[in-house]
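Lecture 7 notes. Example A: sequence first, then its structure tokens.
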Amino acid sequence: MFYYIVLAVGVVVSLIFCYQRRLGFSIKNLLFKSVSSLCYLLTAVFALIHNNGAYTYGSLIIMGGALGLVGDILLDLKGVYKQDEKVYLKGGFIFFLVGHIFYTCAVIYSLRIKWWLVLISGVVSAVIGYATVAMANVMKVHYGAYRRIVAVYVAFLAMTTVISIIAVFVSSFQKGYILMAVGSVLFLLSDAVLSNTFFGRGNDKPIHYFINHFLYYAGQYLIAASVMFVK
């Protein structure tokens, strides 16, 4: 019961935040964002309480979500305290990166995915990370001093997405892993928009902020909801 209540409240709060985000960065929006992120974390917590058979998977997803919550706060502090922008941005990268390691491990461990599939996923993800930075000029973004951390971060983000898609087939299309795969794809798309907002030019308009956060929260809530259905 609490799972559905928190999920419903969280979705409403997150939609309001996405709308408010068009106004830019502020302490008020930071608090609103923190509540939105806390709600997707609580969604995963109550999902695990309801489906305690998915203890390991759910615990790892919750850890990933908690790290994402910290990453959310750091990225907003970047906009509020511009004098320390580099510190907050790198901190956000690191927390989200480690969060994706937890997400990836949750999928691999729960399904006992074969090592060679994990290896293939790793190679594909590394190529995606390298290609993202190598094609910066084509995509009209300027990573500057962040090139290395962007490449590593994208590789880990892509790893979560690739392994989640593989999990859909390994699990014979189990609902929980479908939600995880769709959520990770939306997360990836959200970061693609965010990359253009942070490192591109002319892509920081209200609509870009709205799309970025809409995709992000849709992805995080689906990932959190997957805990309810993993067997």
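Example B, a different protein, same format:
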Amino acid sequence: MHVIAITGGTGSGKTTLVQSIVSKISNREILFLSSDSYYKDNPKLSFLEREKINYDEPNAIDFNLLHQHINDLKLGKSIKVPKYCFKTHLRKKEYVVESPKKTLLIEGILILSNSELRKEFNLKIFLECDRNLRLKRRVIRDVNQRGRSKKDVIHLFNKRLDSMHKKYVIPIKKYCDMVINTEEEINYDELIKKIKIL
């Protein structure tokens, strides 16, 4: 099984690239996991306490579980992928069962910040994008999909996301095999061809 990482700052186009790849490769051949599913579960904390957690630093991700799932898939085992609720900041009780496939695609801002996890990837792709465009995309996503206000998203971006991007996202670019600028519409056909022949 070949394991591919797609990373880059929030709003850099990771989901768009994933959708392009998945739409053009048979779902019998490719499995997609988002690191968003692997946020740590903190049911013992109150909602207000969970709201104060910094979800944009590596400590927020359950890398042990993600690493275990990658290893299980490589061994031919099925995995139970958590479902995470962004409104409550908790894992849901249900999960998704996924089976091994030829290619495993993992997307996330922080996935290459873990040194042990980095060793699992055969191809690492970094998506680069202007800060203001990333903010615009983040606002659209969080307002439409996560029930947040535009004002709160902009406040979070200015207060925390910018500094976390500089601290954790930019430094991992040096580990990547490919860097793609996503400020304009991109034809990913060549990349998809490359993935198909892995």
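Note on Example B: The radius of gyration is 17 Å. The first strand starts at residue 2 and ends at 8.
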